[in-house]
Design brief:
Belongs to the thioredoxin family. Keywords: Disulfide bond, Electron transport, Redox-active center, Transport. This is Thioredoxin. One of its GO terms (cellular component) is cytosol. By secondary structure, the protein is of the alpha/beta class. It has a single domain, classed as Glutaredoxin, CATH 3.40.30.10. 47% of the residues lie in helices and 23% in strands. Strands 1-3-2-4-5 form a five-stranded mixed β-sheet. The radius of gyration is 14 Å and the shape is globular. The model has no long low-confidence stretch (mean pLDDT 95).
Length: 122
Amino acid sequence: MTTIDLSRETFGATVQGDGIVLVDFWAAWCGPCRSFAPVFEAASDTHSDIVFAKVDTEAEAELSSAHRIASIPTLMVIRDGVLVYKQPGALPAPQLELLITKARELDMDDVRRQIVAAEAEA
């Protein structure tokens, strides 16, 4: 599966709902972003059940700002509409595969309970 480009208009609809979505925030001038792109694309070919999406931070500055993207590349993992991972930095293929495995293994009922507990404490 190829990656899809996200915009402010399409981001919400893409990340809501069931399943896993990986979002790569990037820019054309960014060397690490260019290094990570083939790794991300290869993973999208391997994992056809996952949505792989990219946000061009130059074209979508408002979207990047809304998600507090301070450095690129930044990878977000959203599972069943819940943000479960967000970190800057280009991952090598084995680490991206491990991250995907961990996202698949998450007990989302437990994740939601933890979110509710954290919000209650705040």
